[in-house]
Amino acid sequence: MLNPFRGFSAVFYKEALHIRRDFATLFFSLIIPLMQMFLLGFAIDTNIRQINTVVYDADGRRESRELLDRLRNSDTFHLVRFVENDHDLTDAIVSGKCRVGIKIPVDYSDRLLHQMSAQVLVLIDGSDSSVAGQAINVTTAIGLDESLRRVLANSNAPFAVDMRPKILFNPDSRSPNFFLPGLTAVLLLNVTTFLTAFSVVREKERGTLEQLFVTPVRPMGLLLGKLLPYLIIGFFELGMILSFMRFVFQVPIHGNVFLLAVLSLPYIFVSLSMGILISSKANSQAEAMQLAFLTILPSIFFSGYIFPRETMPKFFFILSYFVPATYFIDITRGIILRGATWEHLWGDAVVLFCMGTLLLVIAARRFQNKVIMA
Amino acid sequence: MSDTPQAAIAAQNLVRRFGHFTAVNDVSFQVQKGEIFGFLGPNGSGKTTVIKMLTGLLPLSGGEASVLSLDVRKDPESVRENIGYMSQNFSLYSDLTVTENLTFYGRIYGLSSDRLRKRMDEIAQLNGLGPYMNRLSAQLSGGWKQRLALGCAMLHEPKLIFLDEPTAGIDPVARRQLWDLLFELSAHGITFFVTTHYMDEAERCNHVAYIYFGKIIADGTPETLRELPEVRPEGTYRVEITTPQVTRALRIVRTVAGIRSATIFGQAIHALINDDLELEHLRELLLKQGIVVAEIRPLAPSLEDVFVELTYRHQTQSEAPRA
């Protein structure tokens, strides 16, 4: 007699009708993620190349020209300007026209010929830390390499230690390969948390929720009937994002797509529970929107989606463990880029499942106390 | 108060506390089957709380309640299964059509598709919704929305329907039509529990109760309430004094010995006066002060008089111990 899911099919039927009637919302919630995907896939490139560079070559002989060629060939520097004095060199950086300034002193070739240490001044604009970092690394490496070659040229001995780095999972360091798997986490959150929160809050605004509580619908039937349509949309969205990622952006999927689909379930569960929690607090759609953004922001900034978690200050690093997207991004990057399997990822899934259950319990409690009995 | 087998609702010593605040304080009443029960009271007096308790949404802090012979504490699910409920804002889905709204509620109550179709036809006929079945409910006017909401609430043929301010914000014609419909349904044995602010609607009920700050201060048929000794104390009667100068007249009337209380109703004063004060004498008294009385006649108290009187008494009583 007591079916805890009473009313599920009725609510599902109704919710499906709402979605069909409000096609515009559905369309935009599916299209906007794709637009974000195109933006991130095509426009953003985190690899630093062709930094505008100004050169003051006071020496101008063969050795200094060789050094400049090496800088050019590194692909990191783009020598756009040649100046004749220190003032112009600094000015090019201050004015923002160049990010790096290189000064080769007048005695550069002489010192090299006399087996003395020659100094090269490298001025770097520190206002963009990743550009500055790349410039330091490359110039240091070229300097070291140049020195070694000069020392070893006289002895014919091989390099004592020869480092041969090999990048395993994204050999060309393509940005889409890095961003798109993480993007799935953020986009799924968009569909699930936002849409469920809105669909419940809308009923609050209309007063229909109050009506439903006086019918035999059980809370679980109501919530599941509301969640399932959005779960289906979420899944559809995931499939769409993955196919675009694979076929438009040519990101190879090394792992098992089926495993990815299964492991996305606990994550979708967390996001939906979050949506319900928001709807138990918010009384208007505007309020729900603000609260939903509160969940989106940590998912973008603390999950490792854009900024690596390892370089975060201790506090934020610990905070990132409380962000569901952290675990799902680990799952998507793991499966898509590294070909990880269930053995590597079950821990993430367990954490997500526990988070979802906890949130759902809190949400159900709040619902009982603040909404039904209010 | 004993629980007769006829009672559709039997509430005994209901108490609901929210922290230190007692929203419902020792409330008892019975609603017989087939009655139209009017539940009145100012906003915030506990009407909605009582409805929530009777429908099993709010646990009782004390007392007993049975609805359609089902214990609200033990079996709230069965209670909700067997009642209908219509909230004040006609909780419809505006982006769904009339048919879809009805289908949704039909499925919630677990109606088979055959029964649902049959009930929809019946309701369309009864409410006159027939021509609008495929219209979005957003496009219906207030009165039609309300009929649809009532249709949704009675789809599963409940024996008891709660109507929470069913006529708030709809036009007078639609109000009249709704009440005609309620009378018709009540003749078929359906019990209605109606909350309202309109006194004319209260007058139409078979049975009214008035709740004031969590306590029921009047309970009975409109006729018995009018005859209450508090409303019509021994040796007094009510008169209506019609005059073009009501405000000035009121000030004078209140000073006359033998007049217990007086209030303005439109172009007239309703006064409670002692039996020994004669109407002709009163007319002369007023004329001396320059007030021309168009008409002065004995009056049966309206329900509004009753509630005003009882509220006033209740206020002075509850303030007395503090003073």
What do these coordinates show?
- Chain A has 374 residues and is mainly alpha-helical.
- Chain A has helices spanning 8-21, 23-43, 62-73, 86-94, 108-113, 129-153, 175-206, 208-213, 219-248, 257-281, 285-301, 314-320, 324-338, 342-372; strands at residues 51-57, 77-82, 100-104, 121-124.
- Chain A folds into two domains: 51-168, abc type-2 transporter like domain (abc type-2 transporter like fold, 3-Layer(aba) Sandwich); 175-373, no CATH class.
- The longest helix of chain A is centred in the middle third of the chain and has 32 residues, at 175-206.
- Chain A starts with 7 loop residues before the first helix and ends with a helix.
- The relative contact order of chain A is 0.11.
- By secondary structure, chain B is α/β, with parallel strands linked by helices.
- The longest helix of chain B is centred in the last third of the chain and has 17 residues, at 303-319.
- The radius of gyration of chain B is 23 Å and the shape is globular.
- The interface between A and B is medium-sized, with 26 and 28 residues.
- The overall number of domains of chain A is 2
Order of helices and strands of chain A: HHEHEHEHEHHHHHHHHH
Helix/strand-derived category of chain A reads: mainly alpha
Average pLDDT rating of chain B: 84
Contiguous uncertain segments of 5+ residues of chain B: none
Overall 3D geometry of chain B?
globular
**Assembly state:** heterodimer
Could you give a short account of the major beta sheet of chain B? 6 strands, mixed
Write out the strand line-up for the largest beta sheet of chain A, numbering strands in chain order: 2-1-3-4
| N- and C-termini, Cα separation of chain A | 28 Å
Please report the number of helical segments of chain B.
11
Q: Biggest sheet of chain A: strands, sense, closure?
A: 4 strands, mixed
- How far is the N terminus from the C terminus of chain B? 34 Å
Query: Percent helix among the residues of chain B?
Result: 25-40%
| Fraction of residues in helix of chain A | 55-70%
C-alpha-based Rg of chain B, rounded: 23 Å
Count of individual beta strands of chain B = 14
Uncertain segments of chain A are none
Order of helices and strands of chain B: EEEHEEHEHHHEHEHEEHEHEEHEH
Question: What does the radius of gyration of chain A come to?
Answer: 28 Å
